[in-house]
Known about the structure:
With 488 residues, the protein is α+β, with helices and mostly antiparallel strands. It folds into 2 domains: 35-261, Endonuclease Chain A (Endonuclease, Chain A); 265-487, Endonuclease, Chain A (2-Layer Sandwich), CATH 3.30.870. It is built from 15 helices and 21 strands. It has a 10-stranded mixed β-sheet, with helices on both faces. A 9-stranded mixed β-sheet has the order 9-4-3-2-5-6-8-1-10, with helices on both faces. Strand 20 and strand 21 (459-462) form a beta hairpin. Helix 11 (308-320) runs parallel beside helix 12 (338-353). The longest helix has 16 residues, at 338-353. The protein starts with 19 loop residues before the first helix and ends in a 7-residue tail after the last helix.
Amino acid sequence: xxxxxxxxxxxxxxxxxxxxxxxxLIPAAAAHPGKTGIWxxxxxxxxxxxxxxxxxxxxxSIDLQYYxxxxxxxxxxxxxxxxxxxxxxxxxxxxxxxxxxxxxxxELAALNAMANVELRIxxxxxxxSPKLLSYVFDFPRLNHRMHNKAMIVDGAAVIxxxxxxxxxxFDYGKGVHYFDADVLAxxxxxxxVSQNFDLYWASRSxxxxxxxxxxxxxxxxxxxxxxxxxxxxxxxxxxxxxIRNTPLVQRIEAGTLIMEWGEVSFFSDDPAKALGEAEDQDxxxxxxxxxxxxxxxxxxVSAYFIPGEAGTEILTGFAADGxxxxxxxxxxxxxxxxxxxxxxxxxxxxxxxxxxxxxELRPAxxxxxxxxxxxxxxxxASSLHAKTFAIDGEQIFVGSFNFDPRSARLNTEMGLxxxxxxxxxxLAKMLEDKEQFYRVSETAEGRVIWIETRKDGSEEVLxxxxxxxxxxxxxxRLVSWLPVEGML
Length: 488
């Protein structure tokens, strides 16, 4: 690995009244002392529109921290919006995990060469092509990844949650889409996220891109060509209309965006976790366990769910104490990571036997799209990606944390705990929609079964993993026998 520079790293620019966003959001926060305003971003298209519109509204700074930035239509268009912001004088800092930017070296190198852009690569691969071969030589280091997702604009607004950048996260095109959720926030939590960004930016895992990426004289032309091609597609035209017709920034600046204000807590792993050096008390999983103390209900949604012995004990303990405990994860047929499902299978029976209501998302799940940013989880999808839990119908956690060993011990994560009855009860209502999920149960002999609810309300009992192929079932079962859980 190259030596890191000795000079101090750049730091976040605070919100000021000199920018349009700051002028609108600073007085709004002052009217709610100590509280943060939250606006849920749930529909994929409008979550994308919010990002584009905030980048266009930026006047001083944009800080972006992402695990994955895909080279597809939504990825190219947003990257070009960032380039345009830098061209008009906005300072841009991009902190990207090297595992999630395949094929973008030339374009990112050209972007980094711009006067107003700084790019840092988190935990980089030493071999650029083929990158994955680096795992052979440096697996212990490269097995740790930065899974955080955040976008901070003018120090005044932040978008944070479970979405990376790419078509599958923004309901773009046909095929598999993800259920996901993130939020737009304003107020004191923005400074917390900015400070956390600076910690990662200056960490020993964040390398200036010029130390990692080769010069790419044609990178700018390639970025422009890909972005233009993306905008010219028929599907992109629908997105451009959505962006044009989403009055988010206008409502922020006019003071008509009705946010939900409350005392929001920000949680993040210490970036030393990526080097295997973080103490247990500095891990997000430790703090989540401390705050998850329900009295009536606990609703958990996790795309990649491996509770382990400790998590199973916590969840079954909730149920034993009379707390209605529900868990939603992907069915085998809807997951995009079959090994995770194999590990989850070890604990599923214990959860069901203890009274934890265990739900698995059907791959054919369809939800009515409501074009409004105020809904928690809408749109259509066939795979779950959200990571959230609600406590007693009063508080909700939204972030990047999957409830699995990788999120707990290997990847860095972040999230917000918010007092939001609307979002918490919206999640609860979504979990009542029986047609969207298989309800996992068991026979008198303790064998796992699945209950499918049809549109007419009738039910069918299924005795094997629904809609999964023989190969999927066999592979998941094989993984459930292997000692690989700590890697998943």
